[in-house]
């Protein structure tokens, strides 16, 4: 079970699915992924979403139905798995975890803090990024900060705290981010995959224009109609300007996914040895 279906979580989901694991994804009611073309969370809005060769399908199960909750969830998951899909359930509070008792819980919400995952949720609990402490609220943590330790499995301590500054790509860091220039309703003035120049109008935050700070390809952009606040991340520009990269899982997401897969296999081995 993976909590979160954003672009980085999708890298983990893709790794696990490709390795033959059956995955259930939990998402929020209104996901706000920036890199929407590579986020399986888009299935919440569209009913289904495909990233590379993985298709996610939204589950239509009422979690308020307590009496048959487990049975209904399992039936719907099996239906989607049989079609080689990845089920996505709107369950931000994680109500389904206790009912389903998954073998593994991966918290990849990337909220920079723990929103409720505990080490008791499953035999294997993995925290992705800042906000988790190995041995306390999870069994291990996977590092998400770009650099030498990206994707490393941490068996003690926590991931590097969020700095608010994105990693350097093509000589640019914070300039890559498209941020709201005021409060209001976001409207994109370009599309994901568009090549833009520095100073080009890329969006509106209410009546406030948002301009690109660097040239490159628009790799991520909020959906139209999303309320934004001044400075809120609303998109990103990749200075490498490779349009095809907008539609495939990123190097960072794959590295994190590899770390999660390594952690699962390591912990499964440890558990099986203890049980022999």
Verbal overview:
With 276 residues, the chain is α/β, with parallel strands linked by helices. Helix content is 22%, strand content 24%. It contains five helices and 17 strands. It has helices spanning 7-18, 43-46, 69-82, 95-100, 251-275; strands at residues 2-3, 25-27, 48-51, 54-58, 86-90, 104-107, 124-128, 140-142, 153-154, 177-179, 184-188, 195-196, 201-205, 208-211, 216-221, 227-228, 233-238. A nine-stranded mixed beta sheet has the order 3-4-5-2-1-6-7-8-9, with helices on both faces. A four-stranded antiparallel beta sheet has the order 10-17-15-12, with no helix packed on it. Helix 1 crosses helix 5. It is globular, with a radius of gyration of 19 Å.
Short overview:
The protein is α/β, with parallel strands linked by helices and 276 residues long.
Keywords:
9-stranded mixed beta sheet, alpha/beta, 17 strands, 276 residues, 5 helices, single chain
The count of strands amounts to 17
Number of helices: 5
Order of helices and strands: EHEHEEHEHEEEEEEEEEEEEH
Q: Residue share in helices?
A: 10-25%
Q: Ranges with pLDDT <50 over ≥5 residues?
A: none
Largest sheet: 9 strands, mixed
Q: Kindly name the structural category.
A: alpha/beta
- What gap, in angstroms, lies between the N and C termini? 26 Å
